Amino acid sequence: MRLALDVVMAHRIARGLSLERERVTALRDLMEERVLLALEETDESSMPPDWSWQRAAEEVALQIALAIVQEQKSEPRVEGS
């Protein structure tokens, strides 16, 4: 999740979006929620023998981060940025 959050935060910084603690916490919580929902929908029994839920969580988190970056593109910049 750390890399995924770094992607989202780098985009926020580059675009001059809010970095307020509440906003960052909300984004982290949203990412965690979406990752958990995705993993809950995963049928481990149908996965290959070398499947890893840790690797799956990392990949899902990155895809979610990219989706959040897309959502942020319509977010207004912070005044003075």
Structure commentary:
By secondary structure, this protein is mainly alpha-helical. Helix content is 67%, strand content 0%. It has three helices and no strands.
Describe the SSE topology:
Blueprint: H1 2-15, H2 21-40, H3 53-72
Helix pairs in contact: 1-2, 1-3, 2-3
Task: Write a concise synopsis of the structure shown.
This protein has 81 residues and is mostly helical.
Rg, Å, rounded: 15 Å
Q: What is the mean pLDDT?
A: 91
Q: Which structural class do you get from the secondary structure elements?
A: mainly alpha
- Morphology: elongated
DSSP helical segment count: 3
Helix fraction, binned, reads: 55-70%
Number of strands: 0
SSE run: HHH
Biggest sheet character: none
Distance between the termini: 27 Å
Strand content: under 5%
Please supply descriptive tags for the structure shown above.
81 residues; mainly alpha
